Write the structure tokens for this entry.
Amino acid sequence: MAGEEAFDKGFPTMSFDSILVPHDGSPEAAKALGCAAWLAPRLRATLHVLESSAEPASDLLAAIDAHQAKLVVMTARGASASAGVEPGRRMGRAGEVLIRESTVPVVLLPVHYREALPWTSMLVAASGEPAADQALEAALQLATALGLELDVFYCESPRTKAQALGEYADAVHHEYGERLQELVRRAAARRPAEERGCIGQVLLCRGDPADELLAQVAQRRAGVVALGWHGTLGAGRALLLKRLLDEAECPLLLVRHAARPASRLKVGEELQRAAG
């Protein structure tokens, strides 16, 4: 991307050298072991397996600190799914606590997960929000370490268009594509050129974000989907994540937004003015 040379110093680093896998002994939870066992040698990571106990959620958070885990790999549900309990539940309670309270990236295997190793590509959902920018940063580092091609996906809808790309009546589709390229360039600016080089296509779609993302996952056979989120699965929130938990068959890399002192991405009218 143009102007990359301006960002080649002062990069924050994230090493995925410690991976934690919670395991409650169920066949469902065991799926995460296969995924983590594939990741660990490729990331030169130590793999820690946490057996379930009386307080799985608090034990899991404590284990993250104790082992200085940089990545957690777990199934969305464990023993309850294997036993057929609460079949309509998207996530187990320990998983809900983890993704709500921990800022460590989580590779989450949805209930319909089907193992497809090795991963060869990653799809990252962009939105222009800080959480999505942080997800792209983590995804770039993980994709580079694993040798994956990374495609960036943005779905234009009335809400997202107004928030991230600027909305004005005479805009044409190719202008949104150019603005999306700029959005991705700014979001990836904290990463070195080596990592930004793994970005393949920047995809601009129109329609329902969940429908379009699931279609792209199937079409591209993405090994993993990365997205940022704000930490709550309450009513009316995290609609994209909920659809992926219900329907996706590939792992989800969840990166929770963490506030940090950094220059923020210009969005909406600010981006419009900056683009001139």
